UniProtKB/TrEMBL annotation:
Protein name as it appears in the record: Calcineurin-like phosphoesterase
InterPro entries: Calcineurin-like_PHP, Metallo-depent_PP-like
Source organism of the structure: Streptoalloteichus tenebrarius (strain ATCC 17920 / DSM 40477 / JCM 4838 / CBS 697.72 / NBRC 16177 / NCIMB 11028 / NRRL B-12390 / A12253. 1 / ISP 5477)
Residue span(s) of domain Calcineurin-like phosphoesterase: 26-238
Cited Pfam families: Metallophos
Amino acid sequence: MCVANGYARVMSSDQAEPSEERSLHVVGDVHGHRDRLVAALAVAGLTDEDGDWTGGAGRLWFLGDFTDRGPDGIGVIELVMRLSEQAAAVGGEVGAVLGNHEFLLLGAHHFPDEPVASNPRTYEELWQLNGGRAEDMERLTDEHVDWLSGLPTVALVEDHLFVHSDTTAYLELGDTPEEINAEMGRVLAARRPDYWTDRMRLLFRRGEFLDPEDGPEAADEVLSRLGGRWIVHGHSPIPVVRGVEPWEVEGPYVYAGGRVVDVDGGLFFGGPCLVVPLPLAESEQSE
Ligand SMILES: [Mn+2]
């Protein structure tokens, strides 16, 4: 990794507009598939084949759900932590918003035996039921916990509102991205099971922009309150949402009148690891 490499790449990929444009990519739910993530990032030119940052001043955002279901969740966390440092050192940016699985994992770490409110299970049981893997929990360090606990829940990057879940529930947490992130920061710091359950369950909601009639309106409400032109989310795998086979997914799914972009390819059950360049081309923006 060196500055010259990243610089050369940015210059060569931006020949049409060699000015100050910075690339922006987004990745949805990785769920432990570290090797497939590295391969996809390498194809996109953002890393080399060892998973070291080659994206120069470019920006890469992750939409949460790093762990569970797949083989190497901690490897994914460590990769993203390292990429954040490497990118920052050369003027790039690697960021992430929290998904429901980060709250499941951290809840199971902080208070495994506490019951989850309005649920017959403990935190550890709920995490296991959702694909939690013992190897990940054994390898989870204080450093990982601190890093995850410092991540935002919502990020507005240019006109893109990055969230994990396709829900209006974020509006119950605050009126601005800053308020929402502050509220979830308090949850993560307080480590109180009751408070945790109450907030975590909001991130399990899904599908709230899909209705052909109400979906666009729900998306507009979120965008008008939190900012941005597009909601970009993971959490609901495109094959499930569209009713297609995982191998049929070739790119993001744009819906709700072009306001919402699903980038979760359904990696954990055979879908692609999508590394989506933003903004989408005009031709991709309509439904
Ligand atoms: Mn999720």
